[in-house]
Design brief:
Strand order of the largest sheet: 1-4
Radius of gyration: 39 Å
Structural class: alpha+beta
Mean pLDDT: 79
Strand content: 15-25%
Distance between the termini: 124 Å
Helix content: 25-40%
Shape: rod-shaped
Low-confidence stretches: none
Order of helices and strands: EEEEEEHH
Length: 117
């Protein structure tokens, strides 16, 4: 069993001539033509989309997980900091109203009557 990969233009716009699978000197079980319009290769799974080994994809996943973990820790630290600052702000507020220095009192009726005349 063999498959034919047609010629294509790679990412550098260079024409790559067509070839048949399996390639000479390649894996004998790679009898399918896999890939995209700009990269084609022989593979053993007709549903394979990426020409990379699974270890490459594993390291990509680990890198993404590490990056997301660091971002989550930074976000968590920011939220904790905001909560602590809000608590400190609320707990240090004075319980009573501020003294403006003016004490307003009701005038007596005797005092009011004498000042009018």
């Amino acid at each position: 069993m063999s498959a034919e990969c047609s010629s294509y233009l790679n990412a550098d716009k260079v024409l790559v001539s067509g070839f048949s699978c399996p390639r000479t000197g390649g894996d004998a079980s790679a009898v399918y033509c896999c890939g995209f319009q700009d990269v084609k290769y022989c593979c053993d799974d007709p549903h394979s989309f990426f020409p990379y080994e699974h270890s490459y994809m594993w390291w990509l996943s680990v890198g993404a997980l590490v990056g997301l973990s660091i971002a989550a820790v930074v976000l968590f630290a920011f939220i904790i900091t905001v909560c602590v600052l809000c608590y400190l702000f609320i707990s240090t507020k004075p319980r009573s109203k501020l003294d403006t220095g003016l004490s307003l009192q009701m005038a007596d009726s005797e005092t009011r009557g004498s000042s009018i005349c």
